[in-house]
Amino acid sequence: MTSGLRSVRDKVVTYFEEILESGEVDFDRLYKAVNALAEQVRRAAEEDKEALEASNLHFNLHALIGGQMEHDREPRLYLLYPQANWVEIGPGTPYSIIGETGYGKPILDRTLKYSDSMQFALKVGCLAFDSTRISAANVDFPIDVVIYKRDSFEIIEHRYEKQDLIEISNWWQERLRESVRLLPSKWINALFQEAGEAQTLPLQAPGQPQ
């Protein structure tokens, strides 16, 4: 999964696919594949970064790479930065988000834990996406979901279009509004009571003594 400039993404992925098709590499651990992808990020940076910055564009590409290779004891997930360095996602990080991060992150921070089930995580992820879609003009359907089961060496892919999740989006919006209505109001009642009392005070004509 990638975010950033489309032109950078396309070039990096094209170069990486060329390496895979050459048959000259055999990745037995996922980090080795991530390193190979990072090399192509550096290559694209050498070719395009200066020209992009001259046009007031940042060389921007973030990537999430997940999976399991032959010698990986368990599935791995890595976050690759535009500088071509990477970090591994572990138990201390229940999620990683790239792209338009500001709108969906509060939902993820408030609800998602590392111990949650994948079903729960997918629900939270869809709600975070929905919040982002509503607030960010450059984010929209479809949603592509990839699920991987440990040691299966097979992935399950599914695409959700807007019509598939519109009922969920509407349900969530109404529950948010209802939750606001049910929010305890004791802390603001005094404020509105004071405002009401101020409105009932007798008005004084100009020049009258205070």
Write the layout of secondary structure elements.
Elements: E1 2-4, H1 6-22, H2 30-54, E2 61-67, E3 76-80, E4 86-88, H3 105-111, H4 118-135, E5 143-148, E6 155-160, H5 162-182, H6 186-199
Antiparallel strand pairs: 1-2, 2-3, 3-4, 5-6
Q: Based on the structure, what is the oligomeric state of the protein chains?
A: single chain
The count of strands amounts to 6
Can you write the helix and strand succession as a string?
EHHEEEHHEEHH
Question: What overall geometry do the principal axes of the alpha carbons give?
Answer: elongated
Which regions contain 5 or more consecutive residues with pLDDT less than 50? none
Measure the end-to-end span. Answer: 69 Å
Beta-strand content: 5-15%
Query: Average pLDDT across residues?
Result: 93
Main attributes?
single chain; 210 residues; alpha+beta; Glutamine Phosphoribosylpyrophosphate, subunit 1, domain 1; 2 domains; four-stranded antiparallel sheet; two-stranded antiparallel ribbon; 6 helices; elongated
Give a structural overview.
The chain has helices at residues 6-22, 30-54, 105-111, 118-135, 162-182, 186-199; strands at residues 2-4, 61-67, 76-80, 86-88, 143-148, 155-160. The N and C termini lie far apart (69 Å). A four-stranded antiparallel beta sheet has the order 1-2-3-4, with helices on one face. Helix 1 (6-22) runs antiparallel to helix 2 (30-54) and helix 3 (105-111) runs antiparallel to helix 4. It is elongated. The protein is of the alpha+beta class and 210 residues long. Helices cover 49% and strands 14% of the residues. It folds into two domains: 1-89, Aminohydrolase, N-terminal nucleophile (Ntn) domain (Glutamine Phosphoribosylpyrophosphate, subunit 1, domain 1, 4-Layer Sandwich), CATH 3.60.20; 94-183, no CATH class. The model has no long low-confidence stretch (mean pLDDT 93).
